[in-house]
Amino acid sequence: MAKTTKEDDGEEVEVVTFESLFDAYSNFGPNSAEGEVGILLSQVDLWMKQAKLIDGNVTLTDTGMVFNKFKKRRITLQEYEQFLLDLCERKKLNIEDIKGKLFNAGMPTLAPKIA
């Protein structure tokens, strides 16, 4: 999932990218199916919850309404980026802040991180 690179000392380290996080969330949980491409609404919601983006301003209803504009069960990475832009426009949020929080949420866990 994450890219592996070699450091100067020859040690391999994992480099996490937004794309690798997208892949991790799209393949996480009982709803993931071998060979299907894209992320489900339930996986989007998990990622948003883990990033602590579901709050009084952004709700699961908001994510559902924006996601359903695509009229598909799963959306691709490119469509997910459009989903984020649409959500940010709808809720008057900064896209870079949202992507930063999603990135900082890290790989999916069974339960959202609680601070």
TrEMBL record:
<protein>
    <submittedName>
        <fullName>Uncharacterized protein</fullName>
    </submittedName>
</protein>
<dbReference type="GO" id="GO:0015631">
    <property type="term" value="F:tubulin binding"/>
</dbReference>
<dbReference type="GO" id="GO:0046785">
    <property type="term" value="P:microtubule polymerization"/>
</dbReference>
<dbReference type="InterPro" id="IPR011992">
    <property type="entry name" value="EF-hand-dom_pair"/>
</dbReference>
<dbReference type="Pfam" id="PF05517">
    <property type="entry name" value="p25-alpha"/>
</dbReference>
<dbReference type="InterPro" id="IPR008907">
    <property type="entry name" value="TPP/p25"/>
</dbReference>
<comment type="similarity">
    <text>Belongs to the TPPP family.</text>
</comment>
